[in-house]
Design a protein that fits this description.
Layout lengths: L2 H13 L3 H16 L4 H28 L20 H7 L3 H4 L3 E5 L6 H14 L4 E5 H13 L3 H9 L3 E7 L6 H14 L4 E6 L6 H5 L2 H12 L2 E5 L5 H16 L1
Parallel strand pairs: 1-4, 1-5, 2-3, 3-4
Helix pairs in contact: 1-2, 2-3, 7-8, 7-9, 9-11
Protein name: DNA replication protein DnaC
GO biological process, one term: DNA replication
Keywords: ATP-binding, Nucleotide-binding
Length: 256
């Protein structure tokens, strides 16, 4: 390929919004020569490379917009430390069939068992698959909605939590809510019902949600919509954080 043709291809690729092709044309043509590719095979390679770059760029953008606190995967989760948790159940959730069905997932258990890790891993998988995701703690969501309501912008702020395909609500139950706050949560859950997936973590059993939301009737209404299409995963095992802390203390004691 002459330099003139190569320059023309790079310029055209740039105008068409194919920056990866413009940058890597020399490498791609060298590979085509080495592997004696036909025209269609070379075209397939170019399109595959460009698509992979676009997918990765879209994934990184989705992660940034999701507000996820960290990037975790299920491969990093120590299922051996939670023998009562069936890995097949979590792997099945990772197929994201629940997102396609606009169903929900509730991860229940005491602090430190890895609920947030699993929730984040599923959210990362959803971002990778092209779904929109937004992460928030319950306290942060209530605080932002309350502030918006105070200045007459509740409808606009609600859209933040209604728009994504997957809304992750972390730490449900760590702080009890006042009735007005609980009503804001109800609005989110009610408006998302059968329109998007809600993935939540909680250290409280559903029987305790009346105390969390300060009203048994309101808690029942929230649960009614949440659990109608919902996979519930209970993790009743030891705390990872406590294990790591005890290991560190033991190590310090041994050094001393």
């Amino acid at each position: 390929m002459s330099d003139l043709v190569a320059d023309r291809i790079r310029a055209t690729a740039t105008r068409l919004g194919l920056p990866h092709l413009a940058r890597t044309l020399a490498d791609l043509t060298a590979r085509a020569d080495t592997e004696s590719m036909g025209y269609l095979d070379f075209l397939d390679l170019v399109l595959e490379e460009e698509q992979a770059v676009r997918d990765e760029r879209r994934f990184r953008s989705a992660l940034r917009l999701s507000k996820l606190p960290h990037h975790k995967t299920l491969d990093e989760y120590d299922f051996a430390f939670q023998p009562e948790l069936d890995p097949r159940k979590i792997r099945d959730l990772a197929t994201l069939a629940f997102v396609q069905a606009k169903a929900n997932v509730a991860l229940l258990g005491p602090p430190g068992v890895g609920k947030t890790h699993i929730a984040v891993a599923l959210a990362v998988a959803a971002c990778r698959a092209g779904f929109t995701v937004y992460f928030t703690s319950l306290d942060d969501m209530v605080r932002h909605l309350t502030a918006a309501d105070d200045i007459g912008r509740l409808a606009r702020k609600l859209h933040t939590y209604l728009r994504p395909n997957v809304l992750v609500i972390d730490e449900v139950g760590y702080q009890p809510l006042e009735r007005a706050q609980a009503n804001l949560v109800f609005q989110v859950i009610s408006k998302r019902y059968e329109k998007g997936s809600t993935l939540l973590t909680s250290n409280k059993s559903f029987g305790e949600w009346g105390q969390v939301f300060g009203d048994e009737v309101l808690a029942t209404a929230i649960l009614d919509r949440l659990l109608h299409h919902c996979d519930v995963v209970a993790i009743n095992g030891p705390s990872y954080r406590l294990k790591n802390r005890l290991t560190a203390i033991d190590g310090q004691a041994n050094v001393a």
